[in-house]
Amino acid sequence: MSVTDRAHLITADELGAWLIKGNADHVDLCGRFARQPRVDRWCVRRSYRLELMAAGQPVLFWGSGSRRREVTYGLWGCGRLLGPARRQADGAGWELPLDLTIAGPSAWIGRAELRAHDELAGLEVLRQPQASNPSYLSKRQFAALRRDFRDAFEW
Fold first, then answer.
1. What is the pLDDT of residue 8?
2. Are 37 and 77 spatial neighbours (Cβ–Cβ below 8 Å)?
3. What is the pLDDT of residues 97-142, one digit of tens each?
4. How far is Cα 151 from Cα 4, in angstroms, rounded to an integer?
5. Measured between alpha carbons, how far is 118 from 92 in angstroms, rounded to an integer?
6. Summary count for the chain: helices (H), strands (E)
7. Which of 9, 16, 69, 81 has the smallest C-beta neighbourhood within 10 Å, fewest atoms?
8. Cβ(135)–Cβ(21) under 8 Å?
9. Is the dihedral of CA 108, 110, 116, 121 positive or negative?
């Protein structure tokens, strides 16, 4: 890892919330969440970030994609981690145990709104949309999100 890479590492002291992503262009997430808005686990990629995860930390859900104009891609829900990342039962990858609820589509916070916000325009998920799961918000970004979008979700 280069010095430049280390400069972009998130630490527990800087962490405001985790952000997990799902691609609504590849899977019918809208249909899934309309039927069942509760999410109890989600797949993530192995990285140093998994070692920072602990029960009680806030987590946000990001619905990604670009193909469907009628879908608001962006923040769709929030919740908490129920524990650290763990191996999937089949051993194929990693998952997070969650208590997370996807809000109704009218509450979703779109990418355009976030890009237009002074403090949230720099979110990692906007700067590096192809980066792997999980992403994060800094403490300052998470505070701004909760302050300026307080009615969107049950924080």
1. 63
2. yes
3. 999 999 999 999 999 999 999 999 999 999 998 888 999 999 999 9
4. 38
5. 40
6. 5, 8
7. 69
8. yes
9. positive
Cβ–Cβ < 8 Å for 103, 152: yes
- What are 35-38's contacts with CB under 8 Å, separation 24+? 37/77, 37/101, 37/102, 37/103, 37/104, 38/100, 38/101, 38/102
What phi, psi does 154 have (nearest 5°)? -90, 95
Report CA Rg, the chain. 15
H or E element in which residue 58 lies = strand 58-64
Q: How far apart are CA 124 and CA 62, in angstroms?
A: 12
DSSP string, 98-137: EEEEEPPGGG-EEHHHHHTSTTTTT-HHHH-TTSPSPEEE
Q: Which two tokens stand for residue 3?
A: 């010095």
Looking at residue 45, its amino acid is: R
Read off the tokens for 113. Answer: 């709104």
Which pLDDT value is given to residue 6? 46
Residue type, 85: A
